[in-house]
Amino acid sequence: MTAQAQSQVQTLTASSPPSRGGFRVTPSALILPALLYLIATTQVPFFMTVYYSFFQWNLTIPTPVHPFVGFGNYIGLITDPQNFRVLLNTLVLTGGTLLITLVLGGLLALLLNRPFIGRTLLRTLLISSFLVMPVVTAVVWKNMLLNPVFGFFSWLIQQFGGTPVDWLAAHPMGSIIAMVSWEWTPFAMLILLTGLQSLPDDQIEAARLDGANPWQEFRHIVLPHWTQALEVVILLETINVLQVYGEIYASTSGGPGVATTNLPYYIYQRALAEGNIGVGSAAGVIAVILTNVLAIFMLRLINKNAATGGHA
């Protein structure tokens, strides 16, 4: 065998994927188990939810046959005037939390990006609220902060001669937004701080040499550089805040009335508390659609604003 033939054989042998027992192991074969697991745990339950949403199935009515109602469950949800309040509560909770966490997270990121004594300790303390479970957050806020008798905020108001306020009764949605914002502000802070630390120092120095003030520096350099970080924060927070349930369950139970009832808590009421699987499944499908639509809208909005700010 010539040297050229030996070289070709060695090249073909090195480029061939390894085989075990006569079977060739390909990258697709390695990914297939994870893909099947992902389909089994996410897509199968979703399609089952879609399937159940077309039937009239109530666990409190023990009938062997569940009538097919088509889009009847969806029509009932859309035509019920009370459900518009539930949808509005979901949008208000999501939008309010996003606005507060982005503003506070951005300010904290700008603060922690500057060197000062105790910065590491402060960053650790600020992250701690993100690690608290939602139900624990609701219990702490309900009993230690918002309680009208012995809560911290009521005590603080009394020190200035004011009258204590029953926050969960007088301002229920604002209280829930404060709880959720307290949880998710550290997440926004960490992502924005990571994006800020990747900003080259020479860009800031060049802008300062050109006479840019702090607002121009933030608008034309920091904000466009934050585009990808803002996309991550908006996308992940939108998905997670639309699923808020524990804080509402442990603090207001959706009340007073339906003042703090959002889509996840409404699904719990219909599917688990009342046993109406058909209506609960239809509400779950609507929640998935709303999550995708709202996330896409927010991402396009932030991309448009960032592009406008970058060219200004």
Short note summarizing the structure:
The protein is mostly helical and 312 residues long.
What would you say this structure looks like, in words?
By secondary structure, the chain is mostly helical. It has a single domain, classed as Orthogonal Bundle (MetI-like fold). The protein has 15 helices and 2 strands. Strands 1-2 form a two-stranded antiparallel ribbon. α6 crosses α9 (172-197) and α9 (172-197) packs antiparallel against α12 (227-241). The chain is globular. The chain starts with a helix and ends with a helix.
Q: Can you count the helices?
A: 15
CATH top level label:
Mainly Alpha
Q: According to CATH, what is the topology?
A: MetI-like fold
Instruction: Please name the fourth-level CATH homologous superfamily.
Output: MetI-like
Overall outline: globular
Report the β-strand fraction as a percent range.
Answer: under 5%
Judged by helices, strands and strand pairing, the structural class is: mainly alpha
DSSP, total strands: 2
Helix-residue proportion: over 70%
Mean pLDDT: 84
**Overall tally of domains:** 1
How does the major sheet shape up? Answer: 2 strands, antiparallel
User: What is the CATH architecture assignment?
Assistant: Orthogonal Bundle
Low-confidence stretches: none
Strand order of the largest sheet: 1-2
What's the N-to-C terminus distance? 69 Å
* Element string (H = helix, E = strand): HEEHHHHHHHHHHHHHH
Task: Output the radius of gyration.
Answer: 27 Å
